[in-house]
Design goal:
Elements (H helix, E strand, L loop, with lengths): L10 E8 L6 H9 L3 E7 L10 E14 L2 E7 L8 H7 L4 E7 L5 H11 L9 E6 L9 H10 L6 E3 L5 H17 L39 H8 L4 E8 L4 E4 L4 H21 L6 E4 L6 E7 L2 E7 L5 H14 L1
Parallel strand pairs: 1-4, 1-5, 5-6, 6-7
Antiparallel strand pairs: 2-3, 3-4, 8-9, 8-12, 10-11, 11-12
Helix pairs in contact: 1-5
Length: about 325
């Protein structure tokens, strides 16, 4: 007797996981794909080491079966901004986006806004969900605030608290993000569309955001932040001025340079208004021979950082951003 095998086609979906360093992208890929995953982690030697020992520099990858005839290919993007060239590469051919946000960071709204703008060309109605991680640690906002922010930014209303280490939580986000696309398929009796599993009930008490919390609030720079920035490798000096141009702190001995940093602080709002470029948070002036100057504009203050010529500006800027979010 001759047996004739029948090959059933498998629907394959591409799901992108994005979010800041430490939000749980690598853990999520590993959790949902068990041992069948690829990771491109590298040991960290910068400020990120305060939170984790390794960071993704290219991508995380894994495959998970959604049903007998459906597979989701999961790609985790690097969280550090200096590796953002990989984002466009990984987005090609993508079907859905999962944004993971770390609730323990100082300003998660900034993270959400950053990814909303970075992936604006990819986000479509129904193809994006947001998972909020690290809710066991003190955080500034509630899930309802995240939902309001995400809705205002035109991202999604689907925001859920998850544990990136739990397979059921991550599988829920994946199936939720793919639900509209999968529903377009015409199910047959022997090939049903798998429904979205119920997200496990949370045990974390959800609290309202503080009455004085604003989405655009910026952390006030203090001595602790200045000390951490000053200790970064490649930093030659730090200067802090307020919006009035008054020098609050400096170990940069060039008085003219301190005055220039204060000038940039006062000039930035005019540039934003005239150029229509949106909010300017960082200005970098590079010199081929002398030190480089990077100015971070934060809540009416300007943090000027003088760095050695050979210091990597993107790497240093990333470390400062992490200090502003974590310290």
């Amino acid at each position: 007797m001759l047996d004739i095998g029948v090959s059933l086609s498998v629907s394959k979906y591409k799901v992108i996981f994005a979010g800041p360093v430490g939000a749980g992208k690598t853990a999520a890929v590993r959790a949902v794909t068990d041992s069948k995953h690829l990771s491109t982690d590298a040991v960290v030697s910068d400020i990120t080491s305060l939170r984790k020992t390794t960071t993704t520099v290219a991508m995380d990858y894994g495959v998970v079966s959604l049903s007998e005839h459906e597979q989701a290919h999961i790609y985790g993007t690097p969280g550090q901004e200096r590796f953002d060239f990989m984002w466009d590469i990984l987005l090609k051919g993508g079907d859905a986006l999962v944004i993971l946000l770390d609730n323990s960071r100082n300003n998660p709204y900034r993270d959400l806004k950053h990814y909303a703008e970075a992936f604006a060309g990819f986000i479509r109605p129904g193809n994006t969900v947001i998972g909020v991680t690290h809710c066991d640690k003190p955080g500034p906002v509630s899930l309802e605030a995240y939902r309001q922010w995400a809705s205002d930014l035109g991202v999604t209303d689907d925001v859920f608290q998850v544990d990136a280490r739990k397979k059921d939580d991550i599988l829920f986000l994946i199936t939720k993000a793919l639900q509209p696309l999968r529903s377009q398929s015409m199910p047959t009796p022997d090939q049903p569309i798998t429904t979205v599993p119920e997200l496990p009930a949370t045990t974390i008490e959800e609290t309202a955001p503080p009455a004085n919390y604003e989405a655009e609030e910026r952390q006030t720079l203090n001595e602790s932040v200045i000390g951490d920035v000053n200790a970064l490798q490649g930093v030659a000096g730090v200067s802090l001025t307020n919006a009035m141009g008054e020098l609050l702190h400096s170990n940069i001995h060039d008085e003219a340079l301190n005055e220039f940093i204060a000038f940039l602080s006062g000039l930035t709002p005019s540039i934003e208004e005239e150029a229509g470029m949106g909010r300017i948070r960082r200005i970098t002036l590079k010199s081929p021979q002398a030190e480089n100057l990077t100015v971070f504009v934060e809540n009416g203050q300007s943090l000027g950082i003088l760095s050695m010529p050979k210091a990597s500006i993107p790497a240093l800027s990333q470390q400062v951003e992490d200090i502003l979010q974590w310290v």
